Automatic annotation (TrEMBL):
Gene3D superfamilies, per the entry: 3.40.190.90, Fructose-1,6-Bisphosphatase, subunit A, domain 1 (3.30.540.10)
Record CDD domains: FBPase_glpX
Cross-referenced InterPro entries: FBPase_class-2/SBPase
This protein's name: Fructose-1,6-bisphosphatase
Organism: Acetobacter suratthaniensis
Family in the record: Belongs to the FBPase class 2 family.
One function term, GO molecular function aspect: fructose 1,6-bisphosphate 1-phosphatase activity
Catalytic activity: beta-D-fructose 1,6-bisphosphate + H2O = beta-D-fructose 6-phosphate + phosphate
Swiss-Prot/TrEMBL keywords: Carbohydrate metabolism, Hydrolase, Manganese, Metal-binding
Length: 327
């Protein structure tokens, strides 16, 4: 049972859609123009302004970086118009390169949890494994081989390994895992960027993705965990450290806990969670922003862990009354 009233829970979920819509509308003006920093900056500015209308007392715990690295939506920034104390995880434009090049799967993302319920993840890598709902607990394991995980997943789904689709980022560090997955018979869907959409896709029946595996950004891992919680999927993760400084930073952000421990889903996103994403460019998860003579259409996904409900929302924005950010 959420600590905040159920009506507030529902209203907040819909308010989050307006936040991700605002960021998507702003960044869409830069789609295909080869200027990823401008696209990201537009998304950040629009998302920050939209938060001023949301009835929360929010603290950014996953954001654009530290205060000296990001002018807005920095870690520790206070946002919202006042209300329940909430932690906020944001990626104003997940897939800046995808937006700049007009490639699939650029999205804007926000997640909310009660204070203290998100993993405070530094901007380092995280190993991740994700599957959808309706499967035996522990059907896959981060420490098992990819062959074992595919075999166990296929058995749980009453399918052959050859029927499974594994999704991962196309990176040199994944080359061996990809080769072993293909040798086992699985098909592999490669992403150039944007692993949040890839992880969430495992929880959507019509996405064609059965499992997501690989290392990507730790902040994106927390956002993925929020969505997977809402969808009743399964996920494990582990922070990857390149040096002692990164390990010490992770330990400082989560005192009293082993920074190198294997993380379960509730270690990354606990308690009642709300999640929203809006498409910027069309991909497997969401349709991108579409322009028409007198309106702009957005496509969003909003999810609540307390109910397990996922809603796809298509919004038609009237160009005659919509206030657009400067280009």
């Amino acid at each position: 049972m959420p600590a905040f009233p159920i009506i507030s829970d529902r209203n907040l979920a819909l308010e989050l859609v307006r936040v991700t819509e605002a960021a998507a509308l702003a960044s869409s003006r830069w789609t295909g123009r080869g200027r990823k920093n401008d696209a990201d900056g537009a998304a950040v500015e629009a998302m920050r302004a939209a938060f001023d209308t949301v009835a929360i007392n929010g603290t950014v715990v996953i954001g654009e970086g530290e205060m000296d690295e990001a002018p807005m939506l920095y870690i520790g920034e206070q946002v919202g118009a006042g209300g329940p104390a909430m932690d906020i995880a944001v990626d104003p434009l997940e897939g800046t390169n995808l937006c700049a090049k007009d490639m699939p799967n650029a999205i804007t993302v926000v997640a909310l949890a009660e204070r203290g319920n998100f993993l405070h993840a530094p901007d380092i890598y995280m190993d991740k494994i994700v599957v959808g709902s309706g499967l035996p607990e522990g059907v896959v394991d981060l420490d098992a081989s990819i062959e074992t995980n595919l075999k166990n997943l296929a058995r749980a789904k009453d399918r052959d390994v050859q029927d499974l689709v594994l999704c991962t980022l196309e990176r040199d560090r994944h080359a061996d895992m990809i080769a072993h997955a293909r040798e086992a018979g699985a098909r592999v869907r490669l992403l150039t960027d944007g692993d949040v959409a890839g992880g969430i896709a495992t929880c959507l029946e019509d996405s064609g993705v059965d499992i997501y595996v690989g290392s990507g950004g730790a902040p994106e891992g927390v956002l993925t965990a929020a969505a997977v919680r809402c969808a009743n999927g399964q996920m494990q993760g582990r922070l990857v450290f390149e040096d002692d400084e990164q390990r010490a930073r992770a330990a400082k952000m989560n005192p009293g806990k082993d920074p190198a421990r294997k993380l379960g889903l509730h270690d990354m996103a606990a308690g009642p969670v709300l999640f929203s994403a809006t498409g910027v460019t069309t991909g497997a998860l969401l349709r991108g922003v579409r322009f028409y003579p007198h309106q702009v259409v957005t496509h969003s996904l909003v999810m609540r862990s307390s109910s397990g409900t996922s809603r796809f929302i298509e919004a038609h924005h009237n160009l005659n009354t919509k206030v657009w950010p400067a280009q």
